């Protein structure tokens, strides 16, 4: 099966993000540190878990999928 243009665009963005974050914030002004990204994700998880937004399907799925790693 041939990838669609949308899939190729997503793969291109993923490669760019990979490149930026593997080299780190010292080489790219717009990159955040790994610790900052983790802190941001934890904050997002906490906000989604404790809010009325959890009624939304996509928010609920995010909270369910992330609950095991964040409970460790």
Structural write-up:
- With 72 residues, the chain is mainly α.
- The protein has 2 domains: 1-31; 32-72.
- The protein has 3 helices and no strands.
- It has helices at residues 5-23, 34-49, 57-71.
- The N and C termini lie far apart (39 Å).
- The mean pLDDT is 79.
SS-derived structural category: mainly alpha
Which shape, going by the Cα principal axes?
flat
Q: Mean of the pLDDT scores?
A: 79
Which regions are unreliable across 5 or more consecutive residues at pLDDT < 50? none
Write the element-wise H/E pattern from the N-terminal end onward: HHH
Intertermini distance: 39 Å
Radius of gyration: 16 Å
What is the percent of helical residues?
Answer: 55-70%
Oligomeric state of the chains in view:
single chain
Helix count equals 3
Percent of sequence in beta strands: under 5%
What is the total number of structural domains? Answer: 2
Summarize the structure.
The chain has 72 residues and is mainly α.
Essential attributes:
72 residues; mainly alpha; 2 domains; 3 helices; 0% strand; flat
Topology of this protein?
Elements: H1 5-23, H2 34-49, H3 57-71
Helix pairs in contact: 2-3
């Amino acid at each position: 099966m041939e990838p669609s243009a949308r899939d190729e665009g997503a793969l291109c963005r993923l490669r760019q993000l990979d490149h930026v974050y593997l080299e780190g914030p010292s080489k790219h002004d717009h990159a955040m540190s790994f610790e900052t990204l983790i802190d941001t994700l934890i904050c997002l998880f906490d906000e989604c878990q404790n809010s009325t937004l959890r009624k939304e399907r996509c928010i609920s799925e995010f909270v369910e999928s992330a609950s095991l790693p964040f409970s460790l």
